[in-house]
Specification:
The protein has 327 residues and is α/β, with parallel strands linked by helices. It has 2 domains: 5-119, NAD(P)-binding Rossmann-like Domain (Rossmann fold), CATH 3.40.50; 131-273 and 309-319, Dihydrodipicolinate Reductase, domain 2, CATH 3.30.360.10. It has helices spanning 14-23, 39-49, 58-62, 79-88, 103-116, 130-140, 176-192, 280-291, 302-319, and strands spanning 5-10, 29-35, 53-55, 69-72, 92-96, 120-123, 147-155, 197-204, 210-218, 223-229, 238-242, 245-249, 258-263, 266-271. The strands form 2 sheets. The protein has an 8-stranded mixed sheet with strand order 8-9-10-7-11-12-13-14, covered by helices on one side. The chain has a 6-stranded parallel sheet with strand order 3-2-1-4-5-6, with helices on both faces. The longest helix is centred in the C-terminal third of the chain and has 18 residues, at 302-319. The protein is globular. The termini are far apart.
Amino acid sequence: MNKKIKWGIVGLGRIAQKFANDLKLVENAGLVAVASSDFDRSKIFAQQHEVPKYYGDYESLYKDKDVDIVYIATMHHTHARESIAAMNNRKHVLCEKPIAVNSGDANKMIEASQRNEVFFMEAFWSRFNPSIVKIKELIDSGEIGKVRYINADFTFYNLEADVKGRILNTNYAGGSLLDVGIYPLFLSYLILGKPNEILSRSKFFHTGAEIQTSMILDYPDAQAILYCGFASNTEMKAKICGEKGEIYIHPVWHETQGFTMVINGNKKTHSLPTTGKGYAHEILEVHHCIMHNQLESSLWSHQNSLDLIKMADDVRDQSGIKFPFEK
């Protein structure tokens, strides 16, 4: 690959900082512009990462002819709006997870990709983690037999967060499900596909934001027990159990550096460290797709993202998770 792919980033929070650092590790990737609604924040970010252009609004970045692809790292409730605006300016888009707050918005984003003939992918970086990739290969080849059970969680204590911030504010689609619960749902979906039925219950903060959700995903021959929350800390180790063996994904599982497979009492540990924090692997997939004129990834497709957010919709319907900006 000789062509340098030029990136822009909108939304310059914590994840954008990590992404920008990993972007430097990818050959033929260049960060050429950043944007924030706060001009000073944009300028500081650009200085930290030696970015030549910085803007105090997103639209200017979308219209920048030097930008090939935009990484959307804004708050959840703006993912659809900003992704569509970027794609309408003929920019490829990598949008942070969750793809959107609901499947209706996700459909509009996918339609924008197809209409404008630009690449679009939800930034589900765990899908490209070397350990997750290897685990799926082993399961698909029958190493642990037919999968019967999955257990995964994602939780950390965060009830002391600013109630006006995004975490506990329903006006910003706050709550644990879309922020972190989407990861356990992803693991079950990746291994077992769409469930026949989802059973879920949630607990809520005084702001109305959901802060604990337990989920049972029922499949014809398997079940997944999943949990997310802001009310406690856990080790965040996931396990996948088959008829012949089991796989333990080392904590923190969604950004794991390895896993252990146990068959008939015999343990084999796989060490598969990520490049940097781990975002580089999804960046490489994006580059591959763009260089081959693909509108979506075969590893994490538009349909995959749509299936996943529909599962989250089902959880929300059952648990009564609502946002005031949704009709």
